[in-house]
């Protein structure tokens, strides 16, 4: 009898604890969803996932399900990109190395292309996909933003404007001047997502340093007065050693997200990205990784334990 009572009360306590945990989890999750969909007056959170959700291209606010097409820098590539299963098309813009010096789709060291930005945009306006324009130099930015302005009413999908504007871990390239870039872009890109990154480097068989406190604080100082949503492109292989820095950075604003990318030859263990997947809302981290890496990542037992 005594034993039964003891067991019964243990079950009661267990049931109570379960109810409390479940209630807490549910309210915690719904409060996080509310807070990430509200924003300070005049500033905007990222509408990219809402756009694709409304199109039926995504099932929920899971940024890991957004698919990317890379370097759509030729007529053939952009034609293919417009027809495949990707939602976002990424391409590089620079000024042609010969006359006429106009914005073209090319990645350095190339300095010419079979397609100009003007013609590229003319193809994209017929589609419902989003675009991410990657600027490797300041000189192409002004004219490109003017071209973008002309087709803005016809573009249906999200527009992301990308540049590396600060020196980052192992970065050897010179970043674009942050103030000059933002002055040229911010006024013209009111509804766009700004994708603002650090220059980086990665070497095999050595301890590569991660993103330092100074680097994320510098970025926050540059971004805090912007009204646009900002995504920070971050290099996957340097992320395990930078968790607390990006935890802090994402806490600074609802407008901030991460876009995790990888160098083609970086050695990457996708299990090391689970911390990010599990500790932040799944609406706040985009994954621009190789197809086999994404497949492996999504098959990890911990992948679905996301917020
Ligand atoms: C453009 O690239 C070609 C081929 O690499 C090179 O010969 C040429 O000098 C470059 N032009 C400019 C202006 O950099
Ligand atoms: C951001 O705005 C605050 C208040 O208006 C101002 O003091 C500060 O200098 C601005 N920062 C930047 C980087 O423009
Ligand atoms: C992140 O989440 C995982 C699993 O939920 C947990 O084990 C880990 O301690 C968390 N890390 C931090 C730094 O919060």
TrEMBL record:
* Pfam families registered for this protein in UniProt: Menorin_N
Q: Which residues form the Menorin-like domain?
A: 62-293
UniProt xrefs under InterPro entries? Menorin_dom (IPR019356)
* Keyword Repeat recorded: no
**Protein's UniProt keywords contain Lipid biosynthesis:** no
Which controlled-vocabulary keywords does the entry list? Membrane, Transmembrane, Transmembrane helix
Q: Which GO terms describe its cellular component?
A: extracellular space
Identification of the protein by name: Menorin-like domain-containing protein
Name the source organism: Tachysurus vachellii
């Amino acid at each position: 009898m005594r034993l039964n009572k003891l067991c019964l009360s243990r079950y009661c306590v267990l049931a109570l604890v379960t109810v409390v945990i479940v209630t807490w989890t549910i309210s915690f999750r719904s409060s996080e969803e509310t807070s990430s969909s509200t924003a300070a007056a005049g500033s905007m959170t990222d509408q990219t996932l809402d756009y694709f959700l409304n199109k039926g291209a995504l099932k929920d606010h899971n940024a890991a399900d957004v698919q990317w097409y890379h370097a759509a820098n030729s007529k053939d590539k952009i034609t293919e990109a417009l027809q495949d299963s990707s939602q976002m098309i990424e391409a590089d813009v620079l000024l042609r190395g010969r006359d006429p010096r106009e914005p073209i789709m090319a990645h350095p060291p190339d300095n010419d292309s079979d397609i100009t930005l003007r013609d590229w945009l003319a193809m994209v306006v017929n589609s419902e996909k989003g675009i991410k324009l990657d600027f490797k130099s300041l000189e192409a930015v002004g004219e490109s933003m003017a071209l973008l302005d002309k087709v803005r009413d016809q573009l249906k999908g999200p527009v992301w404007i990308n540049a590396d504007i600060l020196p980052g871990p192992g970065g050897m390239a010179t970043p674009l001047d942050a103030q000059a870039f933002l002055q040229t872009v911010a006024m013209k890109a009111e509804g766009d997502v700004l994708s603002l990154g650090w220059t980086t480097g990665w070497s095999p068989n050595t301890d590569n340093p991660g993103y330092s406190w100074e680097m994320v604080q510098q970025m926050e100082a540059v971004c805090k007065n912007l009204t646009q949503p900002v995504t920070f492109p971050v290099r996957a292989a340097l992320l395990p050693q930078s968790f607390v820095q990006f935890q802090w950075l994402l806490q600074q604003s609802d407008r901030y997200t991460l876009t995790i990318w990888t160098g083609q030859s970086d050695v990457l263990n996708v299990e090391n990205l689970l911390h990010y997947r599990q500790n932040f809302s799944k609406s706040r981290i985009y994954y621009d990784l190789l197809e086999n890496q994404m497949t492996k990542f999504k098959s990890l037992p911990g992948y679905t334990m996301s917020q």
